[in-house]
Amino acid sequence: MNQLPFAFDLLPATFIPSQYDNHIKRGLSSMKGQFSEQQEYAISLEKEDTLLYEVFEIKVPEKAGELMHGITVLHPGAVGQEYFMTKGHFHEELETAEVYYCLDGEGCMVMETPEGEWAVEMLYPGRVLYVPPRWAHRSVNTGGRDLVMFFLYPANAGHDYGTIERQGFRKLVMKGEDGMQITDNPRWNPAEKVND
Ligand code: PAN
Ligand code: ZN
Fold it and tell me: Cβ < 6 Å from ligand 1: which residues?
């Protein structure tokens, strides 16, 4: 099937696309094992499966040449001292990139490669971020309101969530004395991937 041209509105009042195909909602329960303060996580989850983020996806055929795009709304909050964040993933097709455009809120993108490099880039309204091929990415809301991001990536990229679920990211973004701080993830364990 060939995609026909289409257009939609993305207006500052809400930044929710005027039309979309998928509305994905992810709550605390989908982040098992990801937050570093596991007891805090268990206590929060027992109270409520709090909604962490929503993705409004505009679907196109999942083949090379097409561009998947949409909006992520990451709500503010924290589990213990660790800010709300997305699951994060590598692209299944590792050699595919992604562009993010921050529309509202404050936060950052935590990134790393299988080769051991890592990076954190700040996100704020008007900021454009290029995530190169091979870089896993997770967004983090360090502010007090929704972090809203437009994203665009090759429609054949696919998502590898399993690697991050098993090994986590090398770096954590935590609440510090004077705002956010980046720390080593004491539970980061790439060996598990090799043996899996
Ligand atoms: C984004 C992400 C979105 C949600 O569209 O999928 O922000 O994050 P998780 O997929 O990690 O739950 C993207 O990077 N797509 O490739
Ligand atoms: Zn991605």
Answer: 26, 55, 72, 86-89, 98, 137, 139, 151, 153, 157, 159
